[in-house]
Amino acid sequence: MEARYTERLIEDYSRMGLQSEVKRMLGQFAKAERQYRGVKIAPAPNYTALSIGNGQINVYLNADPKKDHGVWVFNKDLYEKVFQIGNDLGFEVRRGSSPRFAKIVSFNGVQGIRQFSGIVTELLSKLMRAFNDKSRQARSDG
């Protein structure tokens, strides 16, 4: 991880009373990066993302905890599965209609971060399973 962006993210979230939440989320991002192939943490000045499947699913944390956060999907074949996962976990969801990408799951603002941090492990596990299932299906179809 680019250390300066991560440090700034932790500082900004801590100022909003979200220190334990941001550390839990980043810890789970790091664990997923170590545990799964094709998963990478992508820190940037305005956000930190966990990229799954070489960018087919991206979990974004805005640098400003008061702004928008969520799961963006860049493979339309995964839209419905990610929608179901988000809905089952109680997140705000919307079905993707763009052929290129869509924000399917939202956990915006401070309340969204609190909700997400409480079930980050479960969400990441389910997203990985959805991606891996879709990859296996594509290999067997091809």
Overview of the molecule:
With 142 residues, the chain is an alpha+beta fold. It has one domain. Helices cover 51% and strands 20% of the residues. The protein has four helices and six strands; from the N terminus they run H-H-E-E-E-E-H-E-E-H. A hairpin with a 4-residue loop joins strand 2 and strand 3. The radius of gyration is 15 Å and the shape is globular.
List the helices and strands and how they pair.
Blueprint: H1 3-15, H2 19-35, E1 39-43, E2 47-52, E3 57-62, E4 70-73, H3 79-88, E5 92-93, E6 102-106, H4 109-141
Antiparallel strand pairs: 1-2, 2-3, 3-4, 4-6, 5-6
Main beta-sheet annotation: 6 strands, antiparallel
Beta percentage is 15-25%
Number of DSSP strand runs: 6
How many domains? The number is 1
